[in-house]
Specification:
Elements (H helix, E strand, L loop, with lengths): L4 H39 L3 H8 L1 H4 L5 H14 L3 E6 L5 E4 L14 H8 L7 E3 L7 E11 L2 E10 L2 H13 L1 H43 L18 H55 L8 H32 L8 E4 H11 L1 H6 L3 E5 L6 E4 L1 H17 L6 E8 L4 E8 L24 H4 L5 H11 L4 E6 L3 E9 L5
Parallel strand pairs: 7-9
Antiparallel strand pairs: 1-2, 1-5, 3-4, 4-5, 6-8, 9-10, 10-12, 11-12
Helix pairs in contact: 1-7, 7-8, 8-9, 9-14, 10-12, 12-14
Catalytic activity: ATP + protein L-histidine = ADP + protein N-phospho-L-histidine
Protein name: histidine kinase
GO molecular function, one term: kinase activity
């Protein structure tokens, strides 16, 4: 049977409360009975002694047990709450006043009688009930002597059978039923009150569980369903609701990131297939032409075909190297080995590699300041790769007669900023955040740019992140682009 939290709490409360009520009721009845017996026994403690002292038949010694039986009968008529017995020094019941068959015992244990005679303060003390083999009752007792000879004991049961029967009938008719009614009413009231309280306390949990079930049915999509607002910081249910809300939001973000990553992966595979297929097809075509024996080619044509094939091979090699480099960056397999180096020397080395290409396009490639004496801490190979990619990218997107400047700026705070700016075609503002994604091609990319596979900027960003640096870009269509990244400066001492 599937029970809700509210039902489990309600049934648990009922069972525990009934058990506690039973214990309290039993304990209270026991305490009431003990207190009643204590009071009654103390009240009638001297009863037997007074009867012995005031009655000549007993005081002078007992010889006529029939007369004593009649006396007991008379006393029981006057006091129906008492039963009178005379027992010998060994505990044998010698005489009493009762209907035949009522007295079940022939002997009683004298130990409680002697204890009460010795110390009357130990009440309540219980002795054997002659009318029941298993029961004990409070009593009053007095020794009976004939001169100095102990003849026996006057044993008076306080609250005898007639008293118990009458009392039980009264209780059965009045107080017992009244107590049961009060107990039932208390149970009912507490049950209803606790059910209301439990409903109040468990309603937020039930609501939260229902909302989570709806979100689960919506495949954990927060677009179709959301949790209610949980604003009470001192309430555990609200804290749980906020935690689940944060968790579901995180799951939703991860789902979207996975979808975006899968989309980018498919686009990457498409671009890679295209980028690899284009030079490979060109290479295959030229090699097939060169391999035709019946086709007569001049020395110049053959050399031209070989040069183009070599360029395609070089492009394939460069693209494959970039793919492996980017894969290693994303898998965390690239390690950084920082060292202290002169930034100016590294920049001039990189610029020297592209001087011929820049001169061929009549592009002015310069360094500012001309005396670039700055010491930085970085991985020299990774930093050279970043500068080469940015300068090469600037040359490819700068038209003939343009300018490219590598500028180093010392802004203090132990940081240097390196800018690679050009007067090229520029980039659309809405594309600035996407150009660092692998294989993204801006709308203003020229043919030369497409042949690079679109991996250069992604590699630059990954390498700089490993060196705890961040690259930013500013651009304006038709006016040029500026890439900037920071480096920690080694302070001279």
């Amino acid at each position: 049977m599937n029970l809700s939290l509210y039902q489990k709490l309600a049934w648990s409360l009922v069972v525990i409360f009934c058990f506690i009520c039973a214990l309290v009721y039993g304990w209270s009845k026991q305490l009431e009975q003990t207190s009643q017996h204590h009071g009654e026994q103390n009240l009638h403690l001297q009863l037997a002694e007074h009867l012995v002292q005031d009655n000549p038949l007993i005081k002078q010694g007992i010889y006529d047990y029939k007369a004593l039986e009649n006396l007991f009968h008379t006393l029981m008529l006057l006091g129906p709450a008492f039963e009178f017995y005379f027992v010998d020094p060994q505990g044998k019941i010698l005489t009493y006043s009762a209907e035949p068959g009522k007295v079940k015992r022939s002997h009683i244990n004298l130990t409680p009688l002697k204890r009460l005679i010795t110390d009357p303060t130990i009440t309540p003390l219980y002795g054997d009930d002659p009318r029941d083999n298993n029961k004990q009752k409070i009593f009053s007792v007095a020794p009976v002597y004939n001169q100095d000879s102990l003849q026996g004991y006057l044993y008076v049961i306080i609250g005898g059978e007639a008293y118990d029967t009458t009392l039980n009938n009264i209780k059965a008719n009045d107080s017992l039923w009244l107590a049961v009614l009060w107990l039932a009413a208390a149970l009912l009231f507490l049950f209803v009150a606790m059910l209301v309280l439990f409903r109040f306390f468990t309603a937020p949990i039930k609501k939260l569980a229902a909302e989570v079930s709806l979100i689960e049915a919506a495949n954990y999509s927060l677009t179709d369903s959301k949790l209610s607002a949980y604003s009470n910081k001192n309430n555990e249910v609200d804290n749980l609701g906020r935690g689940i809300q944060a968790m579901l939001t995180r799951i939703d973000e991860q789902f979207k990131a996975l979808e975006q990553s899968d989309k980018q992966r498919r686009e990457l595979l498409t671009h890679l297939s295209h980028d690899l297929r284009t030079p490979l097809a060109s290479l295959q075509g030229f090699l097939e032409v060169l391999n035709q024996p019946h086709r007569q080619l001049s020395t110049q044509e053959r050399q031209h075909y070989l040069d183009v094939s070599s360029d395609n091979c070089q492009q394939l090699k460069q693209l494959i190297e970039q793919i492996f480099e980017l894969a290693n960056l994303e898998n965390g397999q690239v390690k950084i080995h920082p060292e202290t180096l002169n930034l100016g020397e590294l920049i001039y080395d990189c610029v020297a590699k592209f001087c011929l290409t820049a001169d061929h396009k009549e592009i002015n490639l310069s360094v500012e300041p001309a005396i670039c004496d700055f010491t930085v801490v970085a991985d020299i190979a990774k930093l050279e790769r970043v500068l080469s990619n940015l300068i090469d990218n600037a040359i490819r997107h700068t038209p003939r007669g343009g300018k490219i400047i590598v500028h180093v700026q010392d802004v203090g705070s132990e940081q240097l900023y390196v800018d690679v700016s050009d007067t090229g075609v520029g980039i659309n503002q809405d594309e600035l955040t996407a150009i660092f994604e692998p294989h993204y091609q801006a709308s203003n990319s020229n043919k030369a740019g497409r042949q690079q596979g679109g991996l250069g900027l992604a590699i630059c960003k990954g390498l700089l992140q490993l060196m705890n640096s961040e690259i930013n870009v500013q651009s304006e269509l038709g006016k040029g682009t500026q890439f900037r990244f920071n480096l920690p400066q080694k302070i001279k001492t």
